[in-house]
Amino acid sequence: MATRLTFFSSIFLVLLTSSNLVSSCVSPAISNHTFRLDCLCGPTHPPYAIPIYVEDVDLLQFAENLEYLEADFFLYGALGYGLDVVAPNLVIEGPPPIGGMKANLDNLMEGIITEFAYQEVGHLRALLLTVGAIPRPQLDLTSCNFPNIFDEAFGFQLDPPFDPYANSLNYMLASYVIPYMGLLLAGLLGVESGQDAVIRMYVYKRANITVYPYNHAVAEFTNRTSELRNRLAMCGIKDEGIIVPPELGAENRTSSNVLSANAYSISYSRTHPC
């Protein structure tokens, strides 16, 4: 599975692209040397279907599993219900998630996660139109699953078990865990990257706060999680926490790491070979 995942960025085609800028929509007024808008610019998406290679369809549909996870996790976290209520036509008769529940979010985070949730619904619609839909897999969103991930990241059992729904901070740390495979889909790149940036900025502002009731700061949670991602990927460094040694920071001069990037401050390669 890990080998298969490393091929993602090399086989993904552009799902949504921009056409050339329509310069004819702006024209100079001859009499007063000012500029005016002569027309309303049309949509920038191409008016024709973008071809997808047959051998790529199954990999794109595999990514739909992860979009289902994000959609239902965010919907339940913010609203207390999921795709079966919001967009039942998108689940393709897949079973409902197990254990989804509304998180104890403050007003700010509830609004943000609600937006994330509906964005993921839109992504599923885009994938359905592009490569066809697959039934939603059986998702287990119970709080008992996330402790296993953090226990593996830390190398020992946290006591008490980590509860992703307990508060806004816990929920955002759980969101940090979810793999943003949508970053590999060109048309979804902007929104998924934006979501990732919001999550990283949220936890960065709280980097030195101790996550109650554990004796570990937020920054350590992110570092341990990112290290786990790298171990599982078996492909070197592909992710970093929000605080890093200066030798891993921008131009070897910063410890802050709001945006994770390589030595040239370029997003990590997702192509094969690593």
TrEMBL record:
Annotated signal peptide: 1-24
Annotated InterPro entries: Pigment-catalase-like (IPR052965)
One Pfam family recorded for the sequence: Ferritin_2
Keyword list, A-Z: Signal
Taxonomic superkingdom: Eukaryota
Coiled coil: none
Database matches in PANTHER family: DESICCATION-LIKE PROTEIN, OS05G0151100 PROTEIN
Name of the protein in its database record: Desiccation-related protein PCC13-62
